[in-house]
């Protein structure tokens, strides 16, 4: 035990006062005469012994009262376990991710509790101590040390951040600015979620002393949207579509009767009531309106307490992107391809004669149609192979007399052969179970009238052919060659088929084009993603793309052809919708959601975090479960345990004892 003010010990001299009073009785005695003193003498002897005991007890109570009163003013303390480093440099990392909006057992929000703990740290140390506050944003203010007053001001401005940081990122950020050989105190205040913590790849800096402060939430479950996708990612021509949503339950109990709603452009278009098993997932399907075109914002919402930050999920329905079709054709080729892809609201069509074709057009095309070519030039072979290997889509509609040997090498189909001239025969009805035809037909009639065709070449049997003749020979097949290679067995002229005049032609060609779509716009992005590729038509080179939401953001960007690569500043973007604006035109829509890892609320204990951080003697853990408990624990560690309250209580106790002795002891 130490005394903070030992100079007060001189006041122990007051202990002589009650002793002097006890030894000397200053009251003058009064003599009383009695006729017979024998009986009184016996009473006096008995009373003197009791009175002497009473005086000694009262004297002891007075001495002890004065002794503990003096010790109270000396302020005794049990020495602190830790001492502040000589550099007096303190780094406070405060996790302000979305999960910190959850509640502690005393109903305090996690972020508010963490901020109050940081204030306790700042207010406890000497005035000349310097502090550095780091949050998930890694904002510029965290680059330099500041005074306690400046840190207190920054804490009042603290807000939840959309950015999630792993332990590795935090450790690297704390140590990268540390002065070589300088000792500093690091307070790491976080909820230490298992889903986002990760593992530190190296031992924490041994020069610094690391203090882990886990924010422990009350036991809770959470419901959130795990994923969502369209059954048909690119619905061309107003095809029917279905939005499939997977809702997940992170709790240990079943979530019963959860009401999930779908709002498109702020109008409710669907609702479902589902039960989600503990630790499981339930799929919900919402039918989307037929013929949706343009840009639409969709929101999935439900009620779930006490974790509410992920009760909405945003989706951007972009049906404005056009499918780029490039046709390379002979002079005598049919115009069927040009007509079917002439819908300018859905397709961006370009047609070229084979002798007047710029191969660079292939790089920007979603679908390349080679129509009516009997042979293929060697230079074009390399361009087509490269397009396929890069994930492109090619449709081959041969000429009436194809030169097979050249096409074999170009298409890597060794079984390709010509077919002697034959009469046109009817195709077999489509296999409606083939994924290619999913959502194409409203009614799946077995009596569907089918087109006729005669083959000009063949490539062997194909059990997975999209369309086939009634003799089971393939008419339209798809080959996976890095990209998608579609092959027609006949030419698209009138002498070989009436397929291009049949009602089946348009839905098949639309579906084929839809399946070729490159870089399909994603329904949503996580706020933790910083790199977004976009594809825009006729983008002005000198005008940057802007994201317009609640606030306008101009992200870093790089333009390559018609592709734009955006570098999203995480601390400037929040959950919600942002329009993509080029000049004054809205060319797209992006939806941002909270990183779903934030919705998994399971936490590490302090000891588990220390093990993950490969911590040694320089790593300590604060196990305080409330703000007051943390404040007391940090004072005990750095200021010691004060005992003056106990000394004062002892002084008052002996004062009370003196009063009771005088009052009741006769």
From TrEMBL:
Transmembrane is among the record's keywords: yes
Membrane-spanning parts: 6-26, 56-78, 643-665
One Pfam family recorded for the sequence: CARDB
Aerotolerance regulator N-terminal domain span: 1-76
Top-rank taxon: Bacteria
UniProt keyword Transmembrane helix, yes or no: yes
CARDB domain location: 235-295
Protein keywords: Membrane, Transmembrane, Transmembrane helix
Gene3D superfamilies: Immunoglobulins
Cross-referenced PANTHER family: BLL2463 PROTEIN
Record NCBIfam families: two_anch (TIGR02226)
Protein name as annotated: BatA domain-containing protein
């Amino acid at each position: 035990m130490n005394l903070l003010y030992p100079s007060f010990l001189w006041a122990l001299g007051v202990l002589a006062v009650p002793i002097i009073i006890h030894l000397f009785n200053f009251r003058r005695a009064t003599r009383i005469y009695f006729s017979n003193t024998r009986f009184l003498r016996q009473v006096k002897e008995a009373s003197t012994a009791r009175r002497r005991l009473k005086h000694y007890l009262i004297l002891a109570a007075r001495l002890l009262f004065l002794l503990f009163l003096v010790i109270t003013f000396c302020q005794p303390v049990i020495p602190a376990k830790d001492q502040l480093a000589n550099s007096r440099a303190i780094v406070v990392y405060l996790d302000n991710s979305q999960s910190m909006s959850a509640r502690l057992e005393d109903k305090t929000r996690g972020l508010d509790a963490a901020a109050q703990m940081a204030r306790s740290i700042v207010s406890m140390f000497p005035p000349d101590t310097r502090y550095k506050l780091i949050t998930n944003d890694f904002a510029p203010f965290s680059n330099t040390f500041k005074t306690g007053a400046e840190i207190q001001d920054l804490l009042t401005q603290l807000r939840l951040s959309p950015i999630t940081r792993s332990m590795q990122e935090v450790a690297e950020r704390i140590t990268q600015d540390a002065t070589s050989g300088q000792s500093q105190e690091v307070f790491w205040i976080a909820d230490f979620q298992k889903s986002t913590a990760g593992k530190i790849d190296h031992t924490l800096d041994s020069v610094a002393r690391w203090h882990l402060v886990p924010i422990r939430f009350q036991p809770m479950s959470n419901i959130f949207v795990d994923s969502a996708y369209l059954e048909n990612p690119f619905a061309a021509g107003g095809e029917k579509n279905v939005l499939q949503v997977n809702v997940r339950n992170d709790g240990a109990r079943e979530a019963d009767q959860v009401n999930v709603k779908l709002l498109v452009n702020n109008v409710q278009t669907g609702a479902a009531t589902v039960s989600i098993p503990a630790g499981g997932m339930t799929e919900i399907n919402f039918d989307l309106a037929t013929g949706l075109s343009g840009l639409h914002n969709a929101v999935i919402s439900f009620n779930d307490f006490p974790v509410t930050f992920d009760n909405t999920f945003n989706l951007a329905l972009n049906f404005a992107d056009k499918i780029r079709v490039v046709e390379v054709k002979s002079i005598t080729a049919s115009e069927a391809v040009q007509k079917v892809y002439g819908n300018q609201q859905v397709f961006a069509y370009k047609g070229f004669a084979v002798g007047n074709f710029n191969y660079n057009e292939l790089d920007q095309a979603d679908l390349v149609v080679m129509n009516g070519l009997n042979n293929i030039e060697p230079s074009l072979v390399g361009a087509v192979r490269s397009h396929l290997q890069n994930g492109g889509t090619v449709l081959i509609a041969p000429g009436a007399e194809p030169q097979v040997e050249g096409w074999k090498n170009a298409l890597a189909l060794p079984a390709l052969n010509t077919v002697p001239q034959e009469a046109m025969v009817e195709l077999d009805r489509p296999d409606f179970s083939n994924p290619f035809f999913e959502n194409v037909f409203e009614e799946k009639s077995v009596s569907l009238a089918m087109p006729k065709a005669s083959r000009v070449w063949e490539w062997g049997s194909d059990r997975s052919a999209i369309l086939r003749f009634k003799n089971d020979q393939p008419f339209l097949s798809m080959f996976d060659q890095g990209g998608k290679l579609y092959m027609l067995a006949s030419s698209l002229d009138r002498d070989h088929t009436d397929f291009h005049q049949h009602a089946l032609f348009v839905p098949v060609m639309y579906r084929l084009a839809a399946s070729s779509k490159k870089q399909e716009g994603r329904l949503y992005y996580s706020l933790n993603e910083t790199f977004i590729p976009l594809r825009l038509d006729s983008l002005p080179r000198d005008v940057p793309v802007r994201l317009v939401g609640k606030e306008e953001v101009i992200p870093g960007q790089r333009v390559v052809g018609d592709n734009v690569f955006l570098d999203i500043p995480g601390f400037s973007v929040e959950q919600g919708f942002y329009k993509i604006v080029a000049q004054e035109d809205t060319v797209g829509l992006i939806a941002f959601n909270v990183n779903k890892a934030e919705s998994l609320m399971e936490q590490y204990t302090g000891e588990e975090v220390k093990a993950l951080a490969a911590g040694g003697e320089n790593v300590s853990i604060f196990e305080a479960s409330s703000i007051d408990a943390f404040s007391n624990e940090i004072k005990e560690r750095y200021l010691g345990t004060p005992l003056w309250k106990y000394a004062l209580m002892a002084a008052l106790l002996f004062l009370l004892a003196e009063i009771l002795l005088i009052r009741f002891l006769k």
